[in-house]
Write a structure and sequence with these properties.
The chain is an alpha+beta fold. It has 2 domains: 126 residues; 155 residues, 2-Layer Sandwich (Alpha-Beta Plaits). It is 67% helix and 14% strand. The strands form 2 sheets. Strands 2-3-1-6-7 form a 5-stranded mixed β-sheet, sandwiched between helices. The longest helix is centred in the N-terminal third of the chain and has 74 residues.
Length: 296
């Protein structure tokens, strides 16, 4: 990338003052020429009168002397004007150089902006890849934990409840073994889509790994509402779908931990939601709240 900024700094200082001096000299030359023209008019008047009436020799001599002085002034004005024109040409040339350097600097700035934009875009793309699951596009563990940490801070500050749902696909290994990984991937994508469709935009659904998903619900009002939502998730996910001639119904088990009753830290909430999920596998509803599993 080119850089003309240093040269530009050397060229700019004092140029306005130099140009102003040249312009002032040009004005003085104009005044000198005007004076010479006036004086020449006076001389011509004297010489003209000399043809009509007799004028003393002394006055004629003075007129001739004045004429010579006018000639000198005109000659000097011509020389000065030539010098001014030379200096003006130099100023114009230097200003062309400055304009060129300014153009180069603008080009450099445009290049820098483009490079920065490309760098930011690459960084954002790399971060996006790093914090999302490659198959489903859902937030991965890293991003989910960021959202949960932020959610806990807000919940503590405002006195809100939040819920962590641990979701496991039943018999996923046998589906993979029986029908292959293509169908297994389709199952994961279907579960991801149906979980997202059941939650709000401010909530977070994440693929935790393998056949496990987690969900973060913010600003929970009633625990019963969370349980009903989880049951809706179970029902929606279980709706049959067809893939390459195979008709399948997916079943999931969901364990729920509520902040702050079931834990005040991310680790405890995860552990308790996981425990409740394993308890849910042996139930008809396939949904268990942690504190219900403890009391059983």
């Amino acid at each position: 990338m080119k850089s003309k900024s240093k040269n530009l700094k050397k060229t700019v200082p004092g140029k306005n003052a130099s140009l102003e001096r040249v312009i002032n000299r040009n004005e003085k030359i104009k005044e000198t020429v005007k004076e010479a023209a006036n004086e020449l008019t006076s001389v011509n008047e004297v010489l003209k009168q000399g043809k009509e009436v007799k004028i003393p020799v002394q006055i004629i001599k003075e007129a001739i002397t004045q004429n010579k002085e006018v000639e000198y002034k005109v000659a000097k004005a011509a020389d000065d004007l030539h010098q001014v024109n030379t200096e003006l040409a130099k100023e114009v040339a230097e200003r062309i150089v400055i304009e060129t350097e300014l153009s180069d600097v603008k080009d450099d700035l445009a290049d820098v902006r483009e490079e920065l934009s490309e760098s930011i875009a690459k960084e954002e793309k790399s971060r996006n890849i790093a914090i999302h699951d490659a198959l489903t596009g859902l937030p991965n563990r890293v991003l989910f934990e960021e959202h949960l940490d932020h959610g806990l801070i807000q919940a503590k500050r405002h006195g809100w409840k939040l819920a962590v749902l641990f979701i496991d696909i039943d018999n996923f290994k046998s589906i993979n073994d029986s029908h292959g990984h293509d169908l297994g991937d389709k199952v994961l994508l279907t579960v991801a889509d149906r979980l997202q469709s059941a939650t709000r935009s401010e909530d977070t659904v994440s693929r935790w790994g393998g056949d496990e998903f987690v969900c973060l619900l913010l600003e929970v009002k009633q625990e019963a509402d969370v349980a009903r939502l989880a049951e809706l998730m179970v029902k929606r996910i279980s709706e049959t779908f067809e893939f390459k001639g195979v008709v399948l119904s997916i079943r999931v088990s969901i364990g729920i931990a509520i902040y702050p009753a079931d834990g005040e830290t991310a680790d405890i909430l995860f552990k308790n939601a996981d425990k409740a999920m394993y308890k849910a596998k042996g139930t008809q509803r396939r949904v268990v709240l942690f504190h219900d599993s403890v009391s059983d």
